[in-house]
Amino acid sequence: MQRRDLLKLLAMSATAGPLAMPGLLHAQNAPTPRRGGTLKVALLGLDTADPHRHAGSIAVQQVYAETLTSIGDDGTVRPFLAERIDSSADGRTYTFHLRKNVRFHNGRAMTSADVKANFERVRDKVKGGWLTGAMKLARNIETPSPDVLRVELANAHAPFLNLLSELWIVAPESEGWNETIRRPIGTGPFKFGTWQPDVSFQAPAFDQYWQAGLPYLDAVEFDLRGDRDNSLSLRAGDLHLAYVGNDKLDSLAKDRMGIQFLKDTAWYFLSFNNRKPRPLLQDARVREAISLAVDKQAYMKFVVKTAVVSDQPVRPNTYFWDRELEQRDPHAKPDLARARELLKNAGVDPSRETLKVVSWQSDYAQVAVQMVRQLGFKIDHQALDDIGAQRLLGQYDWDLAPFHSGPRADVYLRYARLLSDGPSPMLWGGIQDKELDALINAAVSSPSAQKAREGYLQAWKHVMDKRYTLGLGHAADAIGVAPKVRGYETGYTWSQNRVDGGLARTWLAA
Amino acid sequence: MSTFRRLAPWVLLAVALTAAAIGPLLPGLDPYHQDLLARNLPPGPGHWLGTDSFGRDILARLVAGTRLTLLVAVCSAGIALLGGAGLGLMGCVAGGPARGAVYAAFDMIRTLPPILLSLALMVSLGVGTLSVILAVGIAFMPLFGYVARAVYEREMASGYVAAARVLGIAPAAIAWRHVLPNAAGALLTQVAIVVPRAIVTESVLSFFGLGVSPDVPTWGRIIATAVSYAEQAPASLLLPVLALALTTLSLSVLGNRLRDRFDPLGARA
């Protein structure tokens, strides 16, 4: 495979369609960045100091640890710590040409041996998680020179390079390397400073960062106190950048606060219990009736005005989305009369049935509950925090689960949760379906983007036909930006340090 | 005491009880109906008190909330009364280690504020209306246990109980026939004191998302939903807060008056 072909494939394999690059567009006529200051940020949390064992909270650790590839603002995968990437025609061998001027925070230059050690650590010592499955495919990892790393996979794995955007490279001399890393020595624009779990994290600037002249800030201070209303802190000047709920957007705009949306969207869906469905929910007519009770348009507009309705796990008008499948969505509009008829045909008296619903403490879950309640069902709704919801979901003693899932570095990460042995499958009802596994695995191992797309769409059609999960739509998460913040641009995912943007390029006006 | 001060708590309580009693009978007041195109409306025709962030009628939810909140609080107080007074009296009658064990348990419960204990219990019981009632009831049990013990000891030292003992009447029968009727006044006073505290505890649990299901309109849930939209729809926050404050205030005032009437020591003080 030629490099040009590879880059074309990479561009298509991300879930995005072509988007402009606002960062570059704004580069012209931009004022000279001011150096110094501490940026105060509240985005996601930091659940571990070990970048290889993270459980999804990637917004913080990317400022001190970096990766070989990066998801660009347009959703395509790009070289990051690697300067160049070559791939064999069969999609099984990748050669990474590393940047020569990259230093760890202890001053030592990064070599291919360091990268190899990180690959092997994830492959051999980390259990579960996104990367472990992909890294298990890495049969040979060679270091022909200090600047070159060659990885041979057992078979082609389409999302490999995208997944590497979450394999953080840290120095093997980091404290705790053989067990759990407690003090990572990365290569990022900021160093691992003082961490108070669930309270705060201070990251001072790294003065030998490989991107000359960056970062502009003296430090970044993360507020890790979790779910709360950040809009007041933004208005008061206690925060410069913060995740804000959709219900705060109007009031922030009134106060002239900047609002940016992540470039990729979160996916909203309503799952049935597929692992241990009780007899009522084993009847396809009941699932169909419940699906027909949901008004997707009203639901998604409740989430946020800018949301879009879709029956698929990727947002409309992107490569892995299918227009025809969308147009044939049998649940595009609610049909309560038909839903009631289906229940009647199934011999179900909804007034005698209580549906158990599990959700986070999100308002949209109440909308789902009320829409289903219109059919006459009684509802036992348990709205819990993340840990409580995961615990309850894992017991599979429930019927319906309205949830959403944030932006992902690759379309595969949407489908991985639908596999019988996929990571954290509870939100999708713990599907156990060998036929579906085969379809997804065929898509993943396809060296052709076109074949991969066809495979994923076949898999999704299977999910729809089996009524495992009802796709509702997509909405982007919002970040509030204080007026004195300059040079900040949201990324495709929650990443705060990317090849084409992030906190390294952010500065504070006087 | 002026007529206003004397009657105000009764009037407020009567309003709350009337709303709780006849609210569900009023046509067109569906506390669950969502109109997603009519969210956060100010008071006006069609929605006298406006709508909340789901487009639900605030008046309908307040009325339904009054019923549910009072029901949860009264049931919790009932469980606290039955459990606290019942266990307390049984412990006193049994005496020895049994009495020690019952009151040691009450002492342990009392070391935690009711709200904290209820929070802990809710985590283990899981969310839901029955769990709330049970958690709040357990948290307030010791109050009734201590009252029962005080009355039991007072009555057991009296002459008529000594006479009953001489006649060979069993301690359990003495407790049932003589102690319990004499404790009724003090225990009912305690109920009046506990109900408003149970209302507040339930509201706090619901506010933190640990009480009843999210769309069930107790005052705590209504307030929790409205907090995020205080700027856009202040009525949806102010009205349930007002209902909670006025009802608990009137119940507290009435409870204090009952205590003054039934507690001679308190009256002298």
CATH class label of chain B: Mainly Alpha
Question: End-to-end span of chain B in angstroms?
Answer: 18 Å
| CATH-scheme architecture of chain B | Orthogonal Bundle
Number of continuous helical runs of chain A: 17
The strands making up the biggest β-sheet of chain A line up spatially as 8-9-10-1-11-19-12
Name the CATH class of the largest domain in chain A: Alpha Beta
Low-pLDDT segments, ≥5 res of chain A: 1-28
Number of DSSP strands of chain B? 0
Proportion of residues in helical segments of chain B: over 70%
| SS-based class of chain B | mainly alpha
Query: How many strands, which pairing sense, and closed or not: the largest β-sheet of chain A?
Result: 7 strands, mixed
Structural class of chain A: alpha+beta
List the domain count of chain B as a whole number: 1
Task: Please give the oligomerization state of what you see.
Answer: heterodimer
The CATH superfamily of the largest domain in chain A appears as Periplasmic binding protein-like II
- pLDDT below 50 for ≥5 consecutive residues: which ranges of chain B? none
Count of runs of 4 or more consecutive helical residues of chain B: 10
Give me the strand/helix succession of chain B.
Answer: HHHHHHHHHH
Q: Could you say how many structural domains of chain A there are in total?
A: 2
What is the approximate shape of chain A? globular
- Provide the gyration radius of chain A in Å: 23 Å
